[in-house]
Amino acid sequence: MYILGIETSCDETSVALLRADGEVRCNLISSQIARHQPFGGVVPEIASREHLVHLFPLLEEALRQSGASWNEVETIAVTAGPGLIGALLVGVSAAQGLSYALGIPLVAVNHLEGHLFSPFLSASGAAIPLPPRFLSIVISGGHSSIYDVVTADGRLEIEMLNRTRDDAIGETFDKVAKFVGLPYPGGPQVERLARAGKADRKRFPFPVPQFKESSVDFSFSGLKAGAIRWARQYRVGEDQAALADFCATFQDALFEQLFSRLDTIWQQIRRSAPPRPREIALAGGVAANGVLRERMQAWGRQHDVMVRLPEKRFCTDNAAMIAFAGLQRRREAGDPRLVKAYSRMLVGGPRILGETSAPLVRPS
Ligand code: KG4
Ligand code: ZN
To answer: 80: buried, middle or exposed (CB in 10 Å: 19+, 13-18, 0-12)?
Structure first.
């Protein structure tokens, strides 16, 4: 028996089939990056249309590759938000239709919860069991937050410990990269160039903001403004060596802020009531960054904490993580008619699904 995952919240159409133990049987992704690249960012209308074109062929291909039939699909999990509303509606409507026609329940998944659990998906075989409590760092193109996740005693409580007051970390990568003439998405481009450069905080004095009220929130807009200023001043777009050093310094400053907030949060959380978190999970598109992955592992060794890093294919948007989050929220699966798409949606906030209005039975 399988859970089917559907993800269409942004610029990747993705479909996955997972077994009940979290084993990923199939995870297909159709990326639209090439379609959006000429515009330097995602164009919502193009995204919706591309999802419409690719979703059904991907569904058929996923079943074919897994050797599964529709009768073996027990539950459907679909990204209900947050994301581009037109893009979300394509996946949600398709999932509703399938769920209704097949007489199987539908679970509405928060895209960010998809990222949050993704480090526990295994390369092959059953998923890694979720620890009773862990810290989760979700850093993507639209989001930057650290969460406290408790799963002990069958609970599923997710508390947001901080957020960004302005831009997300991935968004900052993308905007600054665009300014210096690099193609979208900027994160991997900055990482690639940074490898050839040397971080020099004297030449490029990027700020790491501290708030007066000792808040642990992130803020990346000052860094973005600084980056644009230095890029102009040193004309980094015209000089490859300067651009490499600029990228290395910019990336270093972004991660310095991340670790400064993590240090404070870790000190605070260790003083909280048990169970004590012994694992940290890093997730979201920016978690694909090799430098960050190494620094995170080093941080874990220093603090004697197990660090969970998602496989690179599970860092950026994919339906396997949506199906896996759907498994965690299985109890909320229900009537597809009650599911809606939400452009904004809080993690761990009020759930969307109400009571099932009519029992769903699989047609014989
Ligand atoms: O999770 P994701 O695919 O989509 C959102 O939900 O936003 O994340 C995409 C973001 C983009 O901003 C992209 O630049 C960033 O992840 N990203 C990276 C890397 N790979 C992707 N940022 C830094 N280094 C990378 N290697
Ligand atoms: Zn995402």
So the answer is: buried
